[in-house]
């Protein structure tokens, strides 16, 4: 029986009842002989309420003070959780990110963990305590200021602690039963995945699946920490994310050809129309975008029309960055040399992810056939070794996801309803 | 222009509007050329809400985790205040008690400050910032755990920082205009005191005046830090508490003969009936009480009745300790040897405070005459060099306070209403 790190999201500790329920689950793990480290998010809507308050005193709150404000949320939940555990007769101690040794860079509001020195956690465990750690927060290496890791940061805290403490597993408790073959709100017949590789999970996360964030999976892969995503409500086995397939009973879970279908309607498409088709043009466009610190996703360049020597370049990016991108391109219009810009935020992206693609040449064809049969028009295509993504009209997304899910035999036989919600942060 | 420490209570920063109003006042002080350190309490009812939550997960919350929980309140208010100041174009940095160097002992929930090492505050000031510090909290010297100072702790934080930073003055902003000659809720004609000595203020605080807590005044006297108690709403001159009288314009404010009338209805009276009148009896009673860690206030021993050789001993103590005291005495009944116990929680205490008492022999007589004229019966009497206190029926307290206030010429000529409320912590 080794050390386990458990992470509970905001929806799992939304009120006193939730905290008491979670406390029981933690004590259960301790009774089973584990050393237990718990990472906890702020209660329910606490973070949003603090953001509201901040916006009332200061437009566009950010920086050092905003981090100081937001980290109050986890202090509250972790202290309450420690009290609830003590009330069950077990000893628990809570630690802020700083006390837990979560050392970050100084980029406030989206800091990166650069080291974890969990000396106090180790001592607390050795003295027989359950250690409760505030998720989402750390302390900057140079200035010793409180930092936050951005949305989803608590998952990263959990994985980073699991790595630093050499944990057996990092359990991410949430309000869904695990990772599904598609978003159950869209595909009623979506199935829970028993095991998925780090690589496939990374592609799903990058393609719109919200259960685990990309950064957290990346961290787990780097340190080879198995993640177990499961529900804090049901107690069922969830989804294992690891490098090698797990065993269930006597049977090894096989690697699926296709892991799942992800979708994303949070992006917009920018088309730069009438770009001279000569070397360096694309570079100057994406230099302008990069200088504005905008991350882009897919890029497609049309075949040049021989008669004009002009071409169009399209790319997708988060809708929230749309305004900034258009401004940056307009400013660089003379340097780049183009006719006009088109902006379209009514698009959606559907992605099919699975390591089996590499060795199953029929996958791509099957994907396009399914979309065609569903009457969905494709606007952009992009592929990796284990993923195909297409951009369509946003309105077509639900139908397209369902069609692809069925075509690849992912539909569940049962009609059981699945409850699905956010994962806290 | 030197350094000023300003402290704002919870009612002054109860909402976003309050925070913005306070931010303006702070910036005003900065513009006037001061270096400004601000100590802030939790917003409005935040602390009570956190206590509620704690009681939902754990009966009788206390200790390390309870402190961790409560300190979240000041983190929120201090960060919001720093943001509001920045929004006015001035630079501000917020610091937790730990970051501000408030070092305490390890007695959770009522820690004592044992050192203040404000290196980070000094640096922030030298770089031109306004420094915002979380009141009510510190970090324990040995274990580096977060501690709280108990009710009223923010005032103590402010005075302690003022002493460590050698401030010109410690301004305590609250929701009343200052310290009054009596509680304005009871005595409509109570007057604001312009100046009061540390000694008189200590006696008032010990006698039931709630504007400043005893511990905070004691700290200020030890380090000779002038306190200016004033309203964060009106901006008027409030009450100065210091060792020597202040000047107002050309005139030095004179020491008053009588500073004010305080009252307290939070105490109960215990009478130990039929105690053998021999040496060591009183000692054994108060040893039993002290072993139960109960602080008592007044003590009176009746003249022994010669016929029986028995006497009665009465003392007062906080009502909240009543049950504990009775239990402790019952347990020690055989050792002490007494007939019975009487418990009375319908008492009130009225105290007249003033350094002038020492040299004005008529004061005591005048005090008793005023009470007698008002038809108030006296049950216990206790005196110090600069205070007389009596215990009466609780119902008689308002009338008694008004009668004494009038008799000593403390009534104001104006009929202006005074707004009075709590002082946060």
Automatic annotation (TrEMBL), chains A, B:
Pathway: Amino-acid biosynthesis; L-methionine biosynthesis via de novo pathway; L-homoserine from L-aspartate: step 1/3; Amino-acid biosynthesis; L-lysine biosynthesis via DAP pathway; (S)-tetrahydrodipicolinate from L-aspartate: step 1/4; Amino-acid biosynthesis; L-threonine biosynthesis; L-threonine from L-aspartate: step 1/5. Substrate binds at residues 47, 74. It is an enzyme of class 2 (transferase). InterPro entries: AceGlu_kinase-like_sf, ACT-like_dom_sf, ACT_Aspartokinase, ACT_dom, AKii-LysC-BS, Asp/Glu/Uridylate_kinase, Asp_kin_monofn, Asp_kinase. PROSITE patterns: ACT (PS51671), ASPARTOKINASE (PS00324). It comes from the Bacteria. Its EC number is 2.7.2.4. It catalyses: L-aspartate + ATP = 4-phospho-L-aspartate + ADP. Keywords: Amino-acid biosynthesis, ATP-binding, Diaminopimelate biosynthesis, Kinase, Lysine biosynthesis, Nucleotide-binding, Transferase. GO terms for biological process: diaminopimelate biosynthetic process; homoserine biosynthetic process; lysine biosynthetic process via diaminopimelate; threonine biosynthetic process. ATP binds at residues 7-10, 174-175, 185, 210-211. Catalyzes the phosphorylation of the beta-carboxyl group of aspartic acid with ATP to yield 4-phospho-L-aspartate, which is involved in the branched biosynthetic pathway leading to the biosynthesis of amino acids lysine, threonine, isoleucine and methionine. PANTHER family: ASPARTATE KINASE, ASPARTOKINASE. Belongs to the aspartokinase family. This is Aspartokinase. It comes from Streptomyces olivochromogenes.
């Amino acid at each position: 029986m080794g050390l386990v790190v458990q992470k509970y999201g905001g929806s799992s500790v939304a009120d006193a009842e939730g905290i008491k329920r979670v406390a029981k689950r933690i004590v259960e793990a301790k009774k089973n002989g584990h050393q237990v480290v718990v990472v906890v998010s702020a209660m329910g809507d606490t973070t949003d309420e603090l953001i509201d308050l901040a916006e009332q005193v200061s437009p566009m709150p950010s920086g050092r003070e905003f981090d100081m404000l937001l980290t109050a949320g986890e202090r509250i939940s972790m202290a309450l959780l420690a009290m609830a555990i003590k009330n069950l007769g077990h000893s628990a101690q809570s630690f802020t990110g700083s006390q837990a040794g979560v050392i970050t860079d100084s980029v406030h509001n989206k800091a990166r963990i650069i080291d974890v020195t969990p000396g106090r956690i180790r001592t607390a465990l050795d003295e027989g305590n359950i250690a409760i750690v505030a998720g989402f927060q750390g302390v900057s290496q140079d200035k010793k200021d409180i930092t936050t890791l951005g949305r989803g940061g608590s998952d990263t805290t959990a994985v980073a602690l699991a790595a630093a403490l050499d944990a057996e597993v990092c359990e991410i408790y949430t309000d869904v039963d695990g990772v599904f073959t598609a978003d159950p709100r869209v595909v009623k017949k979506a199935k829970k995945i028993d095991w998925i590789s780090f690589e496939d999970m990374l592609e799903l996360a990058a393609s719109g699946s919200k259960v685990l964030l990309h950064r957290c999976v990346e961290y787990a892969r780097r340190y080879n920490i198995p993640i177990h995503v499961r529900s804090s409500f049901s107690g069922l086995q969830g989804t294992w994310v690891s490098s090698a397939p797990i065993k269930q009973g006597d049977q090894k879970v096989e690697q699926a050809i296709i892991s799942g279908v992800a979708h994303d309607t949070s992006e917009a498409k920018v088309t730069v129309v009438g770009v001279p088709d000569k070397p360096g043009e694309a570079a100057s466009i994406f230099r302008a975008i990069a200088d504005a610190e905008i991350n882009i996703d897919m890029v497609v360049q049309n075949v040049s029309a021989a008669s004009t020597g002009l071409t169009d370049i399209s790319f997708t990016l988060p809708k929230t960055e749309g305004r900034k991108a258009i401004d940056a391109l307009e400013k660089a219009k003379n340097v780049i040399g183009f006719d006009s810009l088109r902006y379209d935020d009514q698009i959606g992206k559907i992605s099919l992810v699975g390591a089996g693609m590499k060795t199953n040449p029929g996958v791509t064809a099957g994907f396009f056939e399914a979309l065609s049969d569903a009457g969905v028009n494709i606007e952009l295509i992009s592929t990796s070794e284990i993923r195909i993504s297409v951009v369509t009209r946003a309105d077509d997304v639900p139908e397209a996801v369902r069609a692809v899910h069925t075509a690849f035999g992912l539909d569940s036989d049962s009609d059981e309803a699945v409850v699905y919600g956010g994962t806290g942060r």
